[in-house]
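Much of our argument rests on the idea that a fold can be written as discrete symbols. Part of our work consisted of pairing the sequence of a single chain with a tokenised description of its backbone. We regard such an encoding as a compact summary of how the chain folds. The amino acid sequence and the backbone structure tokens for this protein are reproduced below.
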Amino acid sequence: MTKRIPVAEIVEALSKWFDVSRYDALKDLTLEQIYAELERRMFVYKARQQWETLDDKHRNAVIHHDAMIHSGRVLLEDKWISESHMLSHSYAVRPMTRNSLFNYGRAMYRLENTPQEENVSVSSDYISEYLKQGGLNPANKMLIEIDLEEASSDDLAEHLKVLISQWQKHLKVPKPPEKDFRFGHKTFQKILAYKIIPLMDLIAWEQLNNQKIKYPVLAGILHPDMRYARGSEQI
């Protein structure tokens, strides 16, 4: 049985590596990048639970993750910090890049210069449907134009909400698999407000050291500014 460490020693141990202000950099990440940070931590947590059955590759990945976090590198993809030129995107929605446009153009050129098979009609004016007719859009991606000056973000969201279901039906897109949780703008805001990622790193420390951080200690180090402090029952 692991000996319980006194609270004062736990606080001292945490103070050597944990600084909640480092996590302010999360505000500059996109939804997709936040999701990746969450997913990595969930993988490590589950991996520790299955430690005895892990191969060396996965064990080394977990050890590396822990070392980076405890050295103060809370964002494990340094390049994300310097990518201020990137337009925001998520795992399901992203602005088109020049490379993507080139690939679509190449696919269209291929279709237009290849004899069509019998009983196959490739004639749609819409790129997504045109490529799907030619068998070159297996992922059912939808290429659209959005005029950001034409309508408010709320109006655009409403338009998309209506149109997406119609596009899915028209292109005969199968229903996407249910995810464990919804990950959108509201979830993003809650993750930041409730400091979920720093909390996950503290829980990982508990798991790694077989110790329990008392709720008042968690509340204090997660919310050092008492104006925004949350009670232990909210953590």
Q: What stands out?
A: The mean pLDDT is 84. Residues 31-49 form the longest helix (19 residues). Residues 7-86+183-234 form one domain.
